[in-house]
Amino acid sequence: MLIIENLTMIYPDGTVALRDVSFEVADGEFLGIIGLSGSGKSTLLRCINRLIEPTEGKIIWNGKDITKLNQQDLLATRREIGMIFQHFNLVKRSSVLTNVLSGRLGYTPSSWSLINRFSRADIERAHKALERMGIPEKASNRADELSGGQQQRVGIARALMQEPKIILADEPVASLDPVLAHSILGSLEKLNQEDGITVMCSLHFLDLVQRYSTRVIGLRDGRVVFQGTKDDVKKITDERFKEIYGEDAKRLGGE
Amino acid sequence: MNNKISNENRQSPLHTFLSLILPGLGQMLAKQWQRGLTILIGVGLMGSLSIWTIGQRARYPNFALSFKIFAISVLEMGALLIFLMSLNYLLNKYIIKDKTAQAFSGYGVGLLYFILIFLLSGPVLELAGTVAELKTVYLTTTIFSAGALAAFWIWQAFDAGKIGALKAGEAMPSLGFAVLVLCLLIFSLGYQITEIDLNKAISEYTDTQIILTRLTWPWRSAFAFEQDVLEVAQKIQAPCPAGSVGPDANLPMDGETWISLDNTCGELTTRDLQGKVTFGTEITIFGGGFTPGQKVEIWWRNPIGNPFKPRGVGETDIIMDERGEFETKLYIPEMTVIATAVGDQIHTILVREKSEERFTGALSDEMKLALKGMLETIMLGLMATFFGIILAFPLSFLAARNLMASIVQTLAKMVGGVIGLVVGVGLTGVTMTQIIKLFGGLDKAPIPILMIAILLLFGISWLFMSLGGRLFEYLSKLLGKNGDTILSVIGMTLIGVAPGYLLGLGFSRGIRGIPLKAELAAETEMTFAIGGAILFGILGFYYALRQGGSRNINVGMIAYTTTRTIMNIIRSIEPLIWGLVAVIWIGPGPFAGFIALTLHTVAALGKLYSESIESIDPGPIEALQATGANRLQTIVFAVVPQILPPFISFTIYRWDINVRMSTVIGLVGGGGIGFILIQWIRLFQYDNAGLAVWLIAITVATLDYISSNIRKRFV
Ligand SMILES: Nc1ncnc2c1ncn2[C@@H]1O[C@H](COP(=O)(O)OP(=O)(O)O)[C@@H](O)[C@H]1O
Ligand SMILES: [Mg+2]
């Protein structure tokens, strides 16, 4: 259970990226986040695992306020929160296996990782994760030798190594073509349904949101301007979505 | 546009005239104060600099004369320019109508200008009453400095005229021409001050040729040659006090080599303070049994036992006749007689016959020395690079903005850390004195003690720093709501007091001590120290109170700025200068060179490294932070793989530079081949110097080739 309460984020340069955002995410949800570019989607997701320090507000994850955690507890909590990125964020020169294993660092003693050692169990786990993502044969390739879709699979495998309870996905398919987008989102959906991992995923395309989300929130100018359940999403026509988007666009242009 | 053209031709005679008398005056009259003053100061500066340069160049620093030459030159050039400008103007107005031809007439007049300068130089020089050697100086000065200054003078007069005739709202005349002329003037002064003299470069080349051949092809001296030397001696007494008869003269010996003298007692050649030489006794040296037709050398060994070849007292290279005998005359040479010498002063005359040199293929001692120096140099570069890497690597992370910017700490925790750090360093000091006592003195085992000191320093400081931070965090929780601030205020006051005390003391000793007498400054220095302590204490107090203890301080950026600043300072000082410092510190030798190069390498590599860290893809860092990896793990897995290729590339590049630098670091005493090279040059041993230069060139070229090849694989 993730509860966001009155979250505000102001960047050092004064940009207000989130204004008083509040919503809840139930366990097992596939929450779609929509909004124009610059509406604060990435900022919101990064506040949740405190890659960015929020200015104000609470983020209550299974009863504890993430914003109040000290460094050590924060690291421990981050292990429960997987994250995948638009540009995959793999270490390009490292092998696929190393990239996947690095998802396990939160569980590895510092001294071990200094000399690049992982336990046999972890290596086993990494191979399993790759197998699950359908690319077991790529383990020893360099990450930058893989296609975009494969790289994103490595990204998901890395997140899986954390044994996450929730996955934050920041436009995970924005740099992939539509066919690959469906296959990646399909994988996320499978993790969501089979493993019960909660997913928060910002998406650009309406059809993808409609197809995969169980619930949607819409952001504009750092504010939540739309909330709907899976049923609302199904009911909502393209026109209604366009209304939300279009209205935003118009207002942005007019202001 | 039209307006502008007409404005260019309009002149206010009064302004022009005033500026012609005193540069800038016309402009000032037109209320263009800045322009006028700049012109006046500019002319004054350029003029005095030119005059000073003439004196320097003529090696004749006579101000009046230099001034006279320059003033006449400027007047002459000014008159010439005005004459030529009028000529050009008239030509264009009445005779040459074609536009292209008009442009060329300008060039023609310019050419005429140079011709006239040469023609006029003779008479004017006589007019100036100058010495003949000033002639070349006069010519360069006239053509460049005086010409440019005269042109500038005329320009600014016209400029004043234009400004004086300016109507409201019109644009100021352009400065383009003035800038051009000033550039010419500065160029000409630079040319003269650096004593660029192409004449000399050519005329003195022939003298250099012999040396140059020895330098460029020195390979004969790379090998050792064998030679037999036959030496026979005859003793002689000098000076010859009354009653002395001198040692016995040798008798001719059949079948053996021998020399003898007609007289074995005589007086030394002397030289008085004015350098006038009074020859001593003339002796006849004769001998036999040498190889017929062979050249022998006469040497002299003084009573102390030092042999030398007598100079200026007669022929010392003698050719044997067909029977292998010779006879030659020589004055007893001049030498310093040791004042404390007692008794008869017995010298020895030596006649040496040397056989032909035989090539053996063995290397000469010089070559061996040069090779050893070269090896030393390569190793020096290698070691400096090695230690440079080890030190620069961790530093470069501190100097990478993208890594450091995100490290923040509450003021309270930072204060705790700083106090902990100070305590830690202090404790290290105390512990180290005990440990040194245990060893029985620093010089008993400097290396182990140093190692322990470094380990302790890092270990204890780190431990106390984090303990201090934790303690303050804990205390502030105990104290409740304002705990952070209370602790920070106390801590910052303490932190302010110590540097304040030192700064006050430093101010008193370093700055007040300059004009004051040392004792006087020392008497009152405590006032300053305590004053400084109080001042900085209050500043710290105030700062902490204003910021509040829970305020986040960007500790990372503090570390970043400090590291960057130190590295920039070290890097901006050339290794050669570090070399000088190191030589003073530990004496000449490769170790001094090592220290100099290492210092510079750390700073240079630190910068290169940290810049390559700053340019990495931040994505993986973010991704790993998100997995719950700690800072160290993030660096090892997300940063290091990305920076490895540029690091390797930069390191090899630096090694390349270091080997090149280490060849010259020896020039200031830093060991290696440079050290040997500079000594050979000073001893005029050009063949040996040539050897060293060759070895340097070969080594550097080889390493260059190798390193660029290795680098190619990583870039
Ligand atoms: N590091 C930053 N510093 C300052 N402003 C930022 C920074 N990152 C994002 N912003 C601003 O915050 C707002 C939200 O950005 P972002 O969260 O990236 O939006 P989205 O992911 O929806 O495109 C934008 O106006 C953006 O310009
Ligand atoms: Mg974004």
Write up what this structure looks like.
The complex is a heterodimer of chains A (255) and B (715). Chain A is of the alpha/beta class and 255 residues long. Chain A contains 10 helices and 10 strands. Chain A has helices at 41-48, 71-78, 96-101, 110-114, 120-132, 148-160, 178-194, 206-212, 230-235, 238-254; strands at residues 2-10, 16-25, 30-35, 56-61, 64-65, 81-84, 166-170, 198-202, 215-220, 223-228. In chain A, helix 5 packs across helix 6 and helix 6 (148-160) packs parallel to helix 7. The longest helix of chain A is centred in the last third of the chain and has 17 residues, at 178-194. Chain A starts with a strand and ends with a helix. With 715 residues, chain B is of the alpha+beta class. Among the domains of chain B are: 13-196, no CATH class; 228-355, no CATH class; 409-553, no CATH class. Chain B has helices at 2-9, 13-21, 25-29, 33-57, 63-95, 99-128, 135-164, 176-193, 198-203, 205-216, 365-398, 401-404, 411-439, 446-479, 483-512, 518-523, 525-547, 555-572, 575-586, 590-614, 619-626, 631-665, 673-682, 686-714, and strands at 223-226, 229-237, 258-261, 270-271, 277-278, 282-288, 295-301, 307-308, 317-319, 326-331, 346-354, 358-363, 409-410, 552-553. In chain B, strands 2, 7, 8, 9 and 11 form a 5-stranded antiparallel beta sheet that branches. In chain B, strands 3-6-10 form a 3-stranded antiparallel beta sheet, with no helix packed on it. In chain B, helix 4 (33-57) crosses helix 5. Chain B is extended. Chain B starts with a helix and ends with a helix. The model of chain B is unreliable at 1-7 (pLDDT under 50). The site of adenosine-5'-diphosphate has 12 residues of chain A, from helix 1.
